[in-house]
Design brief:
This protein is mainly alpha-helical and about 290 residues long. It has one domain. Helix content is about 65%, strand content about 5%. The chain contains 11 helices and 4 strands; from the N terminus they run H-H-H-H-E-H-E-E-E-H-H-H-H-H-H. It has helices spanning about 1-25, 25-35, 40-60, 60-70, 80-95, 125-130, 135-150, 155-180, 190-230, 235-245, 280-285, and strands at about 70, 100-105, 110-115, 120-125. It has a 4-stranded mixed sheet, sandwiched between helices. Strand 3 (about 110-115) and strand 4 form a beta hairpin.
Length: about 290
């Protein structure tokens, strides 16, 4: 319930900020005089900006299971699955969250946590991760994912995405409106210049928005690493797990889950990476030992 209220309050705050800035700049009168209804545009931007993020968040568990083919462990079929359930339960108790669903999926070394509510989350690990790491290292990875759940990172990331989406939708249409009126001199309705400019602006602003979301995603990875170290009482297992991941093939996740994995492919565009370089994460954990 708190997170629903947070979504609503954030939505309202974004609309107020946009409305205040436009009013201070005197653009509201200009827009109204030229036939653009500011309140309707604000409402439209908020609905489309936050709507997609909210829907994605609410469907995140179901989509994660479907897209990865994850098998949720209900009754352990092996000693390994029993250990997974016991370990996740222990970590969840330390973090003060309800026991999440635990799943295993086929793939290279990776893991993720998702879900709209911290007391109804999903933690999944790949067969590649289970087969290539020691149990201490797997426990550290599980601690990292439980920290994401305890920190409410899935909700916060959806909020950030919703905020930037709202600004992108709003600003793209305002810029397109002025270009259409001033450059293309459209007097009534919306001409081709409006739609062309809107598409270009949404692409460019969307790139900037992606940089903001990626930056936040990288920050939360450091917090989740620190959370794992705190639950296990030492950063050493998490450092070992990260070092091991650095020498393994990156386990790719569906695009919608990339930000929730334990690692990803940063590629050449580091500014767009959802995770910091493994070397930086290990150095951050080393500071906890001193």
């Amino acid at each position: 319930m708190k997170r629903v209220a947070l979504f609503l309050l954030t939505n309202i705050a974004v609309m107020l900020v946009l409305s205040t800035v436009v009013s201070l700049l005197g653009l509201d009168r200009v827009l109204a005089a030229n036939g653009l209804d500011l309140p309707s545009l604000l409402a439209f931007s908020a609905v489309f900006g936050f709507g997609g993020s909210i829907i994605s968040l609410l469907m995140s568990k179901s989509m994660a299971k479907w897209s990865t083919g994850a098998h949720v462990i209900e009754s352990p079929r092996s000693e390994s699955e029993a250990w997974l359930l016991t370990t996740v339960k222990k970590l969840a108790d330390k973090a003060g969250v309800a026991m999440p669903e635990v799943a295993v999926y086929e793939g290279e070394a990776n893991a993720f946590a998702t879900g709209a509510f911290r007391n109804s989350a999903l933690v999944a690990v790949s067969s590649g991760l289970l087969g290539s790491m020691s149990r201490d290292e797997v426990e550290a990875v599980l601690g990292h994912e439980i920290a994401h759940v305890a920190n409410g990172d899935m909700v916060t990331l959806a909020l950030i995405q919703g905020v930037v989406n709202t600004f992108v939708v709003f600003l793209a249409r305002v810029v397109a409106f002025f270009v259409d009126r001033i450059v293309f001199r459209t007097e009534r309705g919306s001409g081709p210049g409006y739609y062309i400019t809107m598409i270009v602006c949404q692409l460019l602003l969307g790139i900037l928005a992606s940089l903001i979301v990626a930056w936040f995603s990288r920050r939360r990875e450091f917090r989740a690493d620190a959370g794992s170290a705190r639950y296990l009482g030492t950063p050493q297992p998490m450092m070992q797990a990260l070092a091991r991941l650095g020498g393994l093939p990156a386990g790719e996740l569906p695009k919608t889950l990339t930000g929730f994995g334990i690692t990803d492919k940063a590629g050449v565009a580091a500014l767009f990476a959802t995770h910091p370089p493994i070397e930086q994460r290990i150095r951050a954990l080393q500071t906890q030992q001193t």
